[in-house]
Structures are given as structure tokens and as C-alpha cells.
């Protein structure tokens, strides 16, 4: 939550950047900005943990731009998704214009030739996904010898599910004498250890404990039979009038639900890995402008979508990892606004809900729709160990004999 006593003044920010922030109506820094910016301006390595939607981009963008304005070096920002790369550039462009500093976005799904031409214009800020960045490095189209500031945004995702080898290759090409900033909404202990290997005496800036969910978001869980999920979805969509972000676990599921929504007469679009970058941008822009009221997405959209005013997030399918629940619901309740998150689950998903509750330290309230039969979570199966078997005098459970 923003504190009205805080100000961007006194954080070590250069007057020219303060003037730009004032013109942009940025008056009160978020807690992560207030704590991280002074440390980053001092040149310290930082592990920054804060809830999604709390302004982490500006927490590293302002110090990086101020450093580059005083040197001839360059900065590198690595992000997990194309959408987040574009969003980071859009946020930074508001400040870099005043310094004549060019940036480039290197992501898959767009012409490498166009990106090569952009690199020839000597951009000093490189924003890239790991795979496309490695493509340019292997082809000798780019070098990282003058990188002074390295940022990993959504660092847990980058170092966790498959990105670690790519990140290690990239870091080996960046000078050892650099500033390293890792930012994320979640940072499990094992990822913290990995992050520390790449940093020099990092300062841990934790605004919210690992797994803390957005504080302005309320939660709700419906337990229904699998065959009733679509019926319940149809009922819920009639109760909410604002913009809705709906998450499915697979791209096939997202396609089917988006098709169903259109059949019901809802203006909807979809974002998943089978959609081209142009299609994904068109869907996101249409969602922002209100052309589409409902955006159906896989977890490709759980991070990096900066859309204010999303009324509701629906987890039509629970995420594969509990941490992604935090990122999904962080799309609503942003910028101090209230938000709501609904999860539609089946009776056998007791453990999945339990994992989420342990992570966010909240008991998710269970609701019932008056027109949908309510189910209950299946009771955990009783497991008989060898010890318990012996303690029962050798008798097997339920009195069944071994044949």
C-alpha cells in the first residue's frame, strides 16, 4: 500500500528524472521503489521481492537510466516472456526520452532482420527473452562486454523452469564487474541460493514475504463436478459486468473456452503460445481498450500484463504451481483498486488448494452457487504403514484376507 508520507525526493534520484516523474504524475513511490531505488543508485546488488503490480519495473528502471546517463556503458534486462519485454520497454520509454537513450526489444516471433537493424543504431538498453538473446550472441550479432547493469525480471521463473542453463550462458558473457538486480513477486529459498551465486553481497529487499498475495484481492473457491465447470462459468459471467481475465492450464483448453465464450455472445480474445506475437498484442490491446471484455489466457499471461481495472480473475483451471496463483491474481486489485479472484475446482483438488493456502497463508473461502450442485473435497486416503499394520496385530484394514 502506498504511504502518503513517502516521496521520490530524497532517494538520490537526479533532478532531471524527478522532473520527468512529476510530469508523468508519479508523486508517491511504492514501497519497493522507496526501498530499492536508493540502494540501486548506490550501485548495490539487490534481490527485490514484492507483490505483482507494485511497481518493480520503475524500481530498476530509474537507477539504470540514471547510471547510463552518467556513463557510456549499457544495461541488459532479461525477462521470461515477450509480453513482459514489450511492457518493460513501454514503461522505460517514458523516462529515457529525456536522455536520448535508445532501447531495443529482442524477442521471438518478430523479424530478426528488423532487430539487427535496431541493434545497428547502438541501443544502450537491451530488453530480451533468453532464447532470442542467445540467438544473437551465437551469431555474433551482439556482444555484452560493456554491460554495467544486469536485471533479471521475474527471476524465479527465469532460474526455475528450464531457464537456468540459458541464464548461466548469458551471465558468463557479461563482465564480472557489474551491478546485478533480481526482481520478482515470489522467490523460493532454493531460487534465492541460485540468485546469490551471481551476485556480490546482495541486499535483500522484501516488501512482502514469499507468496504474499495482493492485499486488495478477495478470494473465492467453487467445488463442482468436472462436467459442471462450464455451466458454473456461464452463471458467474452473468454476475460480473467489468473486465475479466480467465486462466486455463493448456492452450487447447484456452481455445475451447474462448470459442465457448464467443458462442455465448461474450466479446473475448485469447492469449497462448499458439497465437502469433501480433495476435497476442492485438488481443491484449483490445482487452485494454474494452473491445474485448474477457481475455482467456494460459500462464503466459500470468506475469507481465499491466492492465489496470481488471474486475475479476477466474482460475478456470488451477495453475500447475502454487506460485503462479499469486501471479495470476496479481492481475486484479492493482494500483490500490479492489479485485476479486474465483477458482473453479473439482473434488480431487484438495491438495492443490492446500498448497496455495500454505503459500499465501490465507484460507480460501468456499462458496456455493444456488443453481449448481455443491461438491466437497474428497477425503484423503488413509495410508497404512507396515508399523501400523503390525500394531493392529497383523490384521489388514477392512478385514479383507489376502488370497
The profile of the biggest β sheet is: 7 strands, parallel
Fraction of helical residues? 25-40%
Query: How many domain modules?
Result: 2
Q: What average pLDDT do the residues reach?
A: 84
Query: What proportion of the residues form beta strands (DSSP E)?
Result: 15-25%
Structure description:
With 403 residues, the chain is α/β, with parallel strands linked by helices. The chain has two domains: 15-206, 3-Layer(aba) Sandwich (Rossmann fold); 217-367, P-loop containing nucleotide triphosphate hydrolases (Rossmann fold, 3-Layer(aba) Sandwich). It is built from 15 helices and 14 strands. The strands form two sheets. A seven-stranded parallel β-sheet has the order 3-4-2-5-6-1-7, sandwiched between helices. A seven-stranded parallel β-sheet has the order 10-11-9-12-13-8-14, with helices on both faces. Helix 3 crosses helix 4. It is globular, with a radius of gyration of 24 Å. The N and C termini lie far apart (65 Å).
Search tags:
single chain; alpha/beta; Rossmann fold; 7-stranded parallel sheet; globular
List the helices and strands and how they pair.
Layout: H1 15-23, H2 31-41, E1 46-49, H3 56-70, E2 74-78, H4 82-96, E3 103-106, H5 112-119, E4 125-128, H6 130-138, E5 147-153, H7 155-159, H8 164-172, E6 179-184, H9 189-197, E7 203-206, E8 217-223, H10 229-239, E9 243-247, H11 251-263, E10 268-271, H12 277-289, E11 294-297, E12 310-315, H13 322-329, E13 339-345, H14 350-360, E14 366-367, H15 386-391
Parallel strand pairs: 1-6, 1-7, 2-4, 2-5, 3-4, 5-6, 8-13, 8-14, 9-11, 9-12, 10-11, 12-13
Amino acid at each position: 500500500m502506498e504511504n502518503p508520507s513517502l516521496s521520490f525526493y530524497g532517494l538520490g534520484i537526479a533532478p532531471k528524472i524527478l522532473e520527468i516523474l512529476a510530469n508523468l504524475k508519479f508523486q508517491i513511490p511504492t514501497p519497493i521503489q522507496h526501498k530499492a531505488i536508493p540502494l540501486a543508485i548506490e550501485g548495490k546488488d539487490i534481490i527485490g521481492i514484492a507483490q505483482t503490480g507494485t511497481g518493480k519495473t520503475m524500481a530498476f528502471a530509474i537507477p539504470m537510466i540514471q547510471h547510463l546517463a552518467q556513463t557510456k556503458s549499457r544495461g541488459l534486462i532479461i525477462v521470461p516472456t515477450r509480453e513482459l519485454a514489450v511492457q518493460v520497454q513501454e514503461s522505460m520509454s517514458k523516462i529515457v526520452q529525456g536522455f536520448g537513450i535508445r532501447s531495443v526489444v529482442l524477442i521471438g516471433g518478430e523479424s530478426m532482420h528488423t532487430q539487427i537493424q535496431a541493434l545497428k543504431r547502438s541501443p544502450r538498453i537491451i530488453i530480451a527473452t533468453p532464447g532470442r538473446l542467445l540467438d544473437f550472441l551465437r551469431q555474433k550479432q551482439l556482444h555484452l562486454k560493456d554491460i554495467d547493469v544486469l536485471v533479471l525480471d521475474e527471476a524465479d521463473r527465469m532460474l526455475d523452469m528450464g531457464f537456468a542453463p540459458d541464464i548461466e550462458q548469458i551471465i558468463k558473457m557479461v563482465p564480472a564487474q557489474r551491478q546485478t538486480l533480481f526482481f520478482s513477486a515470489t522467490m523460493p529459498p532454493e531460487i534465492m541460493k541460485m540468485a546469490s551465486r551471481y551476485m556480490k553481497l546482495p541486499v535483500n529487499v522484501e516488501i512482502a514475504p514469499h507468496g504474499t498475495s495482493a492485499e486488495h484481492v478477495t478470494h473465492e473457491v467453487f467445488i463442482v463436478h468436472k462436467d459442471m465447470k462450464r455451466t458454473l462459468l456461464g452463471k458467474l459471467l452473468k454476475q460480473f459486468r467489468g473486465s475479466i481475465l480467465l486462466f486455463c492450464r493448456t492452450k487447447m483448453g484456452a481455445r475451447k473456452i474462448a470459442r465457448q465464450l464467443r458462442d455465448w455472445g461474450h466479446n473475448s480474445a485469447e492469449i497462448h503460445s499458439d497465437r502469433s506475437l501480433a495476435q497476442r498484442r492485438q488481443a491484449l490491446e483490445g482487452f485494454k481498450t474494452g473491445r474485448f471484455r474477457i481475455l482467456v489466457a494460459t500462464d503466459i499471461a500470468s506475469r507481465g500484463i499491466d492492465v489496470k481495472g481488471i474486475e475479476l480473475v477466474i482460475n478456470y483451471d488451477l495453475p500447475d504451481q502454487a506460485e503462479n496463483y499469486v501471479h495470476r491474481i496479481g492481475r486484479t486489485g492493482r494500483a490500490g483498486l479492489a479485485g476479486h479472484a474465483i477458482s473453479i475446482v473439482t473434488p480431487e483438488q484438495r491438495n492443490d488448494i492446500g498448497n496455495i493456502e500454505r503459500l499465501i497463508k490465507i484460507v480460501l473461502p468456499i462458496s456455493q452457487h444456488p443453481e449448481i450442485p455443491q461438491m466437497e473435497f474428497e477425503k484423503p486416503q488413509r495410508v497404512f504403514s507396515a508399523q501400523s499394520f503390525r500394531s493392529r496385530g497383523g490384521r489388514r484394514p477392512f478385514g479383507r484376507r489376502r488370497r
